[in-house]
Predict the structure.
Amino acid sequence: MVDHHWLRVGSDREFVPNLDKFGFVYIITNLRNGKAYIGCKQYLFYTRLREKESDWRTYTGSSKLLNEDIEKTGKKHFKFEVIAEYKNKRSLRYYELYYQMKHNVLSATLEGSEEHAYYNSRIGGKFYRPVESFQDPEWRKKMSEVVTKRYEDPEERRKLSESQKKRYEDPEERRKLSESQKKRFEDPEERRKTSEANKKRYEDPEERRKLSESVKKRYEDPEERRKTSEATKKGIAAKKRKKNAKAKET
């Protein structure tokens, strides 16, 4: 009987540990949104008097955010995979850092968004994600070019659409997105930046032309018109409910 939750990476085969090794490097993946975490775990820990088995069988990573998501959405929505085992602490730490760097855990983003693709906030136990990365003009320029290039590919657009639909089917994901948007618009500086960015776009004749063509193309599709109509009706209904609730309070 399996007494742990680990699988071999890239398969659904049960992981069979070699307890003569020191530990393993693993990846834990959120199956709902694709966000992952890469870390390492040793089989034993040592004291002055004895050695004792660690909690590797039930271990869910050291990331606070990861464990909060596991608690909220359920362990069944996460995949726990062992990448490889190593014979000593030095090798284990080396390859943990190797795989973290290989997958760019501090800078990679989820497809079609600026959300981090990994729960990791540091690598090698001490190198943290820089908080100013999103304010770097050069970084934003590169990201813009990457996103633009992807949107030119019909297959990439289809994948992105399916990915977004899957996220919006999850009530918890919708709640997080809503809270994130509300938080941004509560900040006067964020509203100012958004307003300036939109004004700048509309000052460009080419941008206005593209937007006009995009809107026309959408309205040529009966299904898109229906969706837009339903969304508008829901928005109006929501505003009425909010207005009535305020009226009752007063």
Observations:
- The first helix runs from residue 64 to 73.
- Residues 210-250 form one domain.
